Amino acid sequence: MSSWRDAILNEFVPNVSKLTLVADPDGLLTEEKLALELRGRGFDLIEFNDPIEFRYAYESQYRSISDRGEHTDLAVILHLQDTELESLPYDLLQAGRKLSFNLGDLFPNLSYPVIEKLDRSLLDALFEAQRKSPPDRMGDNATKDFILRHVFGIAAELIANEVELLRVLLRLHYGKLQIPLMLAHRFVQVLISHGGFKVWPLEEIIPNEKAFFAFLQERWPLFLNSLRKIDQLIEDSPNKSVGQQIWVPQSSTQPVRTMHDGRQPQYGLKYLGPNLLPFDHHDIKVYVDNLFLEGKLIPVEATGMEVDAGSWVRSGIAMVGVDDEELRISRLLDLVEKELPTAEARYSDWTAFALKWAELSSLVHCGNSTVHQNRLKGVGDILNTIFADWLAEHYSSLINLPPTNPAMVHHVPRRLARDVEELRDNRVGLIVVDGLALDQWVTIRQLLQKQDANLVMREFATFAWIPTLTSVSRQSIFSGKPPLYFPSSINSTNSEEKLWKQFWEGHGLSRLDVAYQRGLGDGNSSSVLDSVIHPGKTKVVGLVVDKIDKIMHGMQLGSAGMHNQIKQWCQGGFLAALVGYLLDYGYEVWLTSDHGNIECNGKGRPSEGVIAETRGERVRVYPTPELRSQVAGIFPFAHEWQPVGLPADYFPLVTGGRDAFVHPGEAMVGHGGIAIEEVIVPLVKFERRTR
Q: Do 437 and 677 contact (CB within 8 A), yes or no?
């Protein structure tokens, strides 16, 4: 077999059985590429989690088709062992054929407790390594070492110096390779067991991207200071020749680096470890420029240092009287143009790219350059054309992915529920900022960091539901379900509190343990929450901040105006105080959004009377595909969105790019469509730095 998927796909031949029941305890069928291939073969996948929900979906979407004698290829997935298939309803057991797949069969010589914790996107590399170098039967640690070496390219026992360690960590964290916590602990264990790096904060900087970049940020000024001292030695030297370069060869910095003697950090550093890092080693400095360019590190002042424009350290130095933002924007535009994802990209490639796109967009919208704004729109038009094509093929494969790293917004509460179940005393708070786009989060993040220097924000991104409407996507967040399961309230948000409490009751909590409040954004956050939360009893709280959405619906100054008003609102301190309140009372705090927004231009408004059930600027929703097709024929810029995961009588006609269902030439900021700015939204975990 060339892929681990082959063993599974061989069992799925179209038109063999109307119903296939699959015991899938490891969630293999929900893996992105496999789910896509199964849908390509005509199979619909539906998970059996809740008997009542499943019965509703099965009866409303599949049973009637089967009863008419039409063929359906339906695969019912149970995340149970094959011995537990018998727990299914009798009528399904009689009608369906039974299959079973698990990781133990695919990787028989590796430790099952280890490989079951791997993200399924890593299985390709692991299967290829097993094929090329078949391992003997392995225990837990041997399996971890095998995965580290063959999947992540880390031979921990061979890392002998700080350059090699930094190179590995930069490749991991800059490349967004999320190493599972168990492997991070093993990596640390092996490094320490070999007697090296004992003074390094390995337990913090190996598993945590934010901690690693904070560690680098602290050492960067010290590195610049060491170069300044060497420059001064050269200036004072009687042998200095006229016209000699300011920057010294790498070998000349080696005497400074011998100061790495295991001392605890000085200069008020928060992270342990050596004071000086080898930023100027050729394997390390290739990353430095992009780290500052993408905002992972922040330039610092270096008074008295003369730096050539082409110097490799220039991007990390803030020059007085020099407009660094202009240069940074131009270079970021060059970077994103080269890194546009392809049609074969995974969803994680898109979320990683969206974070870079958001950094760039925030800079442009907060700036005043018409040239940059026009160039951003030009690149954005190309980007959103690619994104729309990718969504049409891949979006449906995201719905049933495991919630460990939430791919979609309805996975977020399921991720929080796992945290609560693993630690029974754990309390969680979810803040949903209605309408917050990823680039607007970047602007907010910078202000929050100034308001609370000890606030640590671990940033991710996730996919909203399409159409990107509040009543669709926000209800999906609070219910933890696809919109298919709340058809009666899909045009309203009035059922959110009920859905939120039902979700947590299904995970073993009492309704009295769960709080919900919406309409937030102004006033004193402490007094608002004091009336909602009992800090000693309330275990879960869901909060809706709708200030951004209100700003958007009144916006007449485009994206730049959005960022300006969001800054003004955030400077009032409501959001910082809200997060701080929850952290102070021991809540695990997350923030997400139901959808983003984009500046659009009118392409024509349909005159359709009452045939559209939703008449938005970026989306129209129809009760039948025939009515939708009539309107789509008149407005070819719109997309007839396939209603996967949506109610049976819900057929959206969505816009992409910057098009809108408003009068030609009219400009507005809206949502509901399939632009990357609307679909990929922030997902942030807040923590407090403890030292």
A: yes
Q: Which residue has the tokens 């199979």?
A: 43
**What tokens were used for 517?**
């409040």
H/E element holding 334? helix 324-338
pTM: 0.88
Contacts of 39 (CB under 8 A, 6+ apart): 45, 396, 397
Q: Give the residue from 610, 620, 605, 607 showing the smallest Cα distance to 654.
A: 620
Round to whole Å and give the CA distance between 156 and 172: 13
The closest alpha carbon to 679, from 652, 661, 649, belongs to: 652
Sheet strands (E) in 362-506:
427-433, 455-463
Q: Could you state, in chain order, the average pLDDT of each consecutive group of 10 residues for the chain (691 residues)? A: 90 86 90 91 84 79 63 75 71 81 95 92 94 92 96 93 95 89 95 87 93 94 83 46 35 33 55 92 93 91 78 85 78 92 93 95 92 95 97 94 92 94 86 97 95 92 97 97 93 96 94 95 90 88 95 86 94 95 94 97 80 80 93 93 90 95 92 97 91 58
Burial pattern 649-683, b for ≥16 Cβ within 10 A else e, equals ebbbbbbbbbbbbbeeeeebbbbbbbbbbbbbbbb
Identify the CA nearest to 547 among candidates 531, 529, 571: 571
Q: In what order do the strands lie in the sheet with 43-47?
A: 43-47, 73-78, 19-23, 97-100
- Give backbone dihedrals phi and psi of 546, rounded to 5 degrees, phi first: -110, 15
Nearest-angstrom CA–CA distance, 45 and 34: 11
Task: Please name which of 643, 208, 220 lies closest in space to residue 395, comparing C-alpha atoms.
Answer: 643
Domains of the chain from N-terminus onward: 6-106 (3.40.50), 155-322 (no CATH), 327-389 (no CATH), 395-595+677-688 (3.40.720.10), 600-672 (no CATH)
Going 387 to 393 to 395 to 397, the CA torsion angle's sign is: negative
Q: For residues 454 and 252, give the distance between their C-alpha atoms in angstroms, rounded to a whole number.
A: 37
**Distance in angstroms (rounded) separating the CA atoms of residues 21 and 48:** 10
Token duo for residue 245: 């370069």
Among 116, 98, 96, CA closest to 106: 116
What's the residue count for the chain? 691
Helix axes 438-451, 574-584, angle to 10 degrees: 70
Report yes or no: 360 and 332 within 8 Å, Cβ to Cβ. Answer: yes
**Which of 472, 430, 425, 456 lies closest to 594, judged by CA?**
472
CA distances from 340 to 171, 345, 352, 356 (A): 20, 10, 11, 11
Residue 178 to residue 402: CA distance in whole angstroms: 15
Task: Supply the angle between the helices 370-394 and 347-366 in degrees, to the nearest 10.
Answer: 160
Phi, psi of 455 (to 5 degrees): -80, 125
Contact at 8 Å (CB) between 112 and 103? Answer: yes
